[in-house]
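Hi there,

I know you've been waiting on this one. I reran it after we fixed the sequence typo, so this is the corrected version. Both the input and the resulting structure follow.
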Amino acid sequence: MSWKSTPERYSRVSIALHWLMVLLFVLIYASIEFRGIFPKDSDGRNLMKDAHFMLGLTVFALVWLRLLARTLGVAPKIIPTPPAWQSALATLMHWALYLFMIAMPVLGYLILSHNDKPVFFYGLDIPPLTAKNVDLAKQIKGWHELGATIGYWLIGLHALAGLGHHYLIKDNTLLRMLPGR
């Protein structure tokens, strides 16, 4: 699998990681949104929360691979070349998404740590980062929830921009990231 992007398209690794992250975000948001269908402290609700935590940490691990893959090779050119303001907005959006993929798992981990709750990651029991501090955990939870709302917007705008480029502007923005082409 190629790690290096070319002037025409992103590397297979970048494409695979991009679409894997899409799937992970769907599962992360679904697990936390649907946890409410289960009674508090039930096995189903705990499973949903554990899945949310584990998948969030998976995003944290994979984002570093995405950043590494991004540094290898050149970014594929958009044809026809978009106006400078669109390129600047795209760069800002991508860095906002990377910040989101790093900050949200860290905030989630801090919430669990400050609540003195275990963190499971594919069978591993990860130790807390901090001492118990329930008040700080509540504050961080507020930031995490705000970040999640911002994440809905970032992800939605990113997807909408890709579709707009493909169907309205008719450039190759989306094609550069589609698998199997």
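Quick highlight: The CA atoms of residues 148 and 178 lie 26 Å apart.

Best,
R. S.
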